[in-house]
């Protein structure tokens, strides 16, 4: 192990130079946000930097993979590297590494901020753009495993607490077994047989998936999608995964959910397999509103008929 921190470069675009952490800090970047422990800073009018212990080089790998194989709007990657080891003890795990991802800054506004201001025509165009991009992603030739690109592990938060494996998984059955084990380990009560039977009820194709398709990760300008960002959880997953994750992650307070149903392929439960009804204790509803400010139950939007059976096993 080196006695001082080193820069370990994953990628450097032609014509670009490595900007060291010291140079980055000395440039006095504009701090924009802290997203799940990763910092976002604007280095220049054209450069955004995502960095920190919780930034991931797998996100950079996913971005390159998608940019090289599709026309999906992904911020151009300038460079990505790990920096360390650092003498920063985190929960007694010893030395850590920081990741730095230098990418194109995309002009526009995230959809979480702009959706309510969009006209009906703009919403239709944004939905059309997203459907095109997601269809192209799902059309990529299958890799033959479940995980991130280049035979990488599953980076979805569903396996954050896994004590066995994070893949890559050679079969959906192996993936399901690990989901069940992880869920059961974090849940009180005798739910093991219930969960395992539930997620084994269907078999699916494996397609490339963004895995975090929430409005915050969609950049729009002038009524069009200019970028899809935050590719850390992307990879090869069962074909229901994009739909389930999009509806699981978001708290719907407007008509975004209705448009999303036209963007993503819905995965039905009741109509496809009558036995699923036995495994659903109550209708799955997406509550309009949140917390103490939520609107009354009668105003909830019921999406239970669209939810794939495995969605029931996705923990909070």
UniProtKB/TrEMBL annotation:
<dbReference type="InterPro" id="IPR011009">
    <property type="entry name" value="Kinase-like_dom_sf"/>
</dbReference>
<protein>
    <recommendedName>
        <fullName>Aminoglycoside phosphotransferase domain-containing protein</fullName>
    </recommendedName>
</protein>
<dbReference type="Pfam" id="PF01636">
    <property type="entry name" value="APH"/>
</dbReference>
<feature type="domain" description="Aminoglycoside phosphotransferase">
    <location>
        <begin position="59"/>
        <end position="262"/>
    </location>
</feature>
<dbReference type="InterPro" id="IPR002575">
    <property type="entry name" value="Aminoglycoside_PTrfase"/>
</dbReference>
<dbReference type="InterPro" id="IPR051678">
    <property type="entry name" value="AGP_Transferase"/>
</dbReference>
<feature type="region of interest" description="Disordered">
    <location>
        <begin position="287"/>
        <end position="316"/>
    </location>
</feature>
<feature type="compositionally biased region" description="Polar residues">
    <location>
        <begin position="287"/>
        <end position="303"/>
    </location>
</feature>
